[in-house]
Amino acid sequence: MKFLRYALFLLPALTAQAATEVQVSDARNKAVSDIIVYLTPLEGQTYANNPETIEVGQKDLAFTPYLTVGQKGQAVSFQNDDDITHHIYSAVGDNKFSFKIKAGQTINKNDFSQSGVVPMGCNIHDWMGGYLLLVDTPLYNKTNKKGAARFEQELSGKFKLTVWHPQLQTPDNQQEQIVELAAGKTIAVKLNGKLAPIPEQVSDDDFDFLSDYE
Amino acid sequence: MKKLALLTFLSALTSNSIIAQSLSIETKGIIDFRLTSTSSSDSYIKGGLGKFRYSDGTRLSIAHAGLEANIGINDHWSARVVANGYLDGEDDAIGLTEAFFKYQGLPSEGGYRLSSRIGVFYPAISLEHVATGWASKDTLTGSTLNTWIGEEVRVAGLEGKLTKLGKFAGKSYDLSLTATVFKNNDPTGALLAWHGWTQSVRQTLYHESRPFPPRLSPELVDQASESDPFRDVDGNPGFHVSGEWKKRRKGSFSFGYYDNQAKPFLIEQGNYGWKTRFYHLGGRWRFDHDLELTWQYLHGDTLMQNLQRQDIVNAGYGSGYVMLSKRWQKKHRFSVRLEEFSVDDRDSTELDNNDEYGKAATFSYQYRLSKGWFLSTEYNWIDSWRPSRSYIDLPVDTTERQLQLSARYFFNH
Asked: pTM here?
């Protein structure tokens, strides 16, 4: 029994050792959090799709989180945690959609069949704006507060590493490099472009009882 | 007839239970309890020349009770019905102020969005009345400019609006152009000419007629004693066009032109057509999140003729205000508004001098008690010159004052 408990305790540590980390920093070597990192296998390596549902929330009249990443074809759940209706849409790209979502409602979508950027807005609250990035690989993540994106899968071989953020001031808002990965390896990525400030998702007037008379 | 049409509109939306089940309904409301001490004469609301909605004296009132229903029909179409009521001892009334269908398209890839309103609604002019039920957000009384909009300017028509959302092109500003054609609103201008500029939050309900001050000119024997500003007299359509530039988190600039294209010599059931046209400009600037400057200016003219097409009332008019509003600790708000207004009588009709010139100042403090409750106190001062006051034995030069205490409650459901 005691042995088993030790074994369970050690298990995450063992898997952690196998994980690959990508550490993203800006030109001044400061860690960059909440930026998307994904890896595209270049040598035919295959990895299991992520079975989880991607969640895109609306809370306090803002997309929460601002930035979400998933694999094309993955289920996306929209959750309205506000006490009013939103009209969520994407008008640009290959995954255009729109629907009204009532207070407290959840809407699931399984038909994001194209990879690419899905800029989202609310047709009632124009200041709301968020992004969903759909990639062609199950190897994706966002960096944590320390600027690290972890990949728990055992990765080895050649990959294309892409860093993407809508405010990254580079062509197509991304930065790519070819990397050779092995279990436990940490890759450091330095951003070539600046990260512009994220547009604030805040109403011009925070009075709670406006009607659209203007 | 108008009442009937509105009731039909309402019942068409709500009576059919199968339809009702597929609709989403959101309601919003406001109630405004007010203690007012007014130093004036008889209010314009009951046919006097007092510039406030309250006649001389002290009273407790329900200054405004409003209910708004927003009915979602599908992703693009919705309907809005706004009912307002007043229990103020001057002219207690309840009824509808607006009822319209709204279409809101999705932005195109370039960020262009088309939207439309069909029905009875306010043309987008006021920068003060942006809250539930057309309530004024920061003050207890609207400016003279927007009090007139609430009294006489409301259209039954079709509006189309094209917005270019800047965020699609990485810009921080939006541009919009709006055009409206409308059938009603032919007597608009009559109340402004005959009682001048006023200051309150009383809106004319769609079914209501408003009384004029006594008129002495023998030229006006056919004129009814009350005005029904939302009537159609000649079948001629009127129009309103406007444009807006809006910079996110900073401010806006808007302009517009209104012309009801009324035939000024036609009369129907005592209501003449008044050919009324004006342009309006306005802007808002946020120096920071808690300090905001709002201003508007409106200038135009109105014309009413007898059957021989001689000018009976020919008047130019203008009104403008500047308001500075400061908020602190998210709870306290202090607003100062300064105004100047005039009416220039250009006809030679005897015993019907509609000249006016005046200035007004408003000092308002608002305390936010909770999400929905707002406690306010406000001081209003209007100093004006109006020769027609002499017709009812009032001094031509008059200063009117008002002190108000209010508890306003807003709610969403």
From this structure: 0.90
